[in-house]
Amino acid sequence: MVSTAIPCSLLPFDPSAVSSSAVDAANSTFVRVSSKDKSYALILAYVATHLVSKDDHRSFEVRAGKKSYDSDSDNDDDDDDKTTSSIVVGFGLHRFTWQQHTLHCLRQSLGTPVGTREEAVRLENLVLMAPQLGNESILRAFVDAVVAASEATTDGFFSVYRWSHYEWCWNKVQSLQSRPMATVVLPALVKESIIDDVENFVTDECKAFYETHGIPYKRGYLFHGVPGSGKTSLIQALASHCNRHVCMLQISHPNLNDDYLQTIISRLPPRSILVLEDIDAAFTKDRKKKVEHSSLTFSGLLNALDGVGGHDGHLVVLTTNFRDQLDDALIRNGRVDVHVAFAHASPDQMADMFLAFYPRETRDRALAFADALVAALGPDRPLSTAALQHYFVTQRRSTADGAIANVDRVAIEIDARKKQAEEVEGEEEDGNEDDK
């Protein structure tokens, strides 16, 4: 019960919120956590999975969000349709355990929502409670441990984060099994140069060089080219190779403004690869906005990129399918250090992927497969590496001979997809005419 020994004005909560619980406010330690603190969402998720008893399992929220990467596919076009969900505790008082301590967490709303309709924002915070006075160190240690656990890397896995505009924090949405660099099908010289560049950048010697010369310790990459050509695969492999997290951000989000973007980037987890998806989606080549009602300015985007990382050694990857639509200032030296072009599958890449799926075959057999596939495709059917991977998946029960014999199916599927896309486009045009 709440004791009258402490004036209500000194309590960081409404006494009625804990009136029916075993919390003794007169002999408890309180720590407030702002909803804008990076630990906020992490604490909500932790408490939901560490409640003391069934009686404490009362109030929860299920949150759905975009699922960043599919570890089994490199089709850039499919990622937007995938979602993931997480469970966090809802509003009210929750009793939970951490190490050998029994603690309380009060999630409370502060006033009425600000804004209108779907854009309304609810102001809220958390109050963490530990029994007895002077136990602030326990609560701070708990918060530090939750944050450290979320930022830690695990051998054999890497984490994917997305910025939550609702919670104002980087939310971990996936933990994916590491992807070997050998599974990335790129021209050998291109892949080797990227690996060498990253490995050199993350050395202590390179960090000292940057700091000595007053250069922000960050490295920028532009991955540009056709969809499904390996951009996602390479980002996954780099994260695995360097033991880093991947943080995904769409700069075309209508809620972004200059200060907000700076805040988002300043809260990047340590040892991160920041991926700005579809960098061409926010501004035209002549710096005009593409997003209606967006408050983000082109200069604000440049300033945010210039400020990335500080001394944290972040890798920054900009992705686009349309390099020719980018303003030169966005990709100049210092903002983008390495440009990587992703093209349709070449004969060498076709052979490499054949050997990846049929490792017992010889290089000559792989080249024979590539020759057969090129002949089946003809000059007018470019093939992405994602489409080629899809073919091998469909042939997973076939022998290498079967995969070579069935290459005509690749051309047939390309033609079918093209026809379907043309039909959809025609239906959309007819609908637009009807609306006039």
From TrEMBL:
Cited Pfam families: AAA, AAA_lid_BCS1, BCS1_N
Catalytic activity, as annotated: ATP + H2O = ADP + phosphate + H(+)
GO CC terms in record: mitochondrial inner membrane
Recorded GO MF terms: ATP binding; ATP hydrolysis activity
Record-annotated AAA+ ATPase domain positions: 217-346
Membrane topology recorded in Swiss-Prot or TrEMBL: Single-pass membrane protein
Subcellular location: Mitochondrion inner membrane
BCS1 N-terminal domain boundaries: 17-184
Record keywords: ATP-binding, Hydrolase, Membrane, Mitochondrion, Mitochondrion inner membrane, Nucleotide-binding, Transmembrane, Transmembrane helix
Domain of life: Eukaryota
Family: Belongs to the AAA ATPase family. BCS1 subfamily.
The protein's name in its UniProt record: AAA+ ATPase domain-containing protein
Organism annotation: Aphanomyces astaci
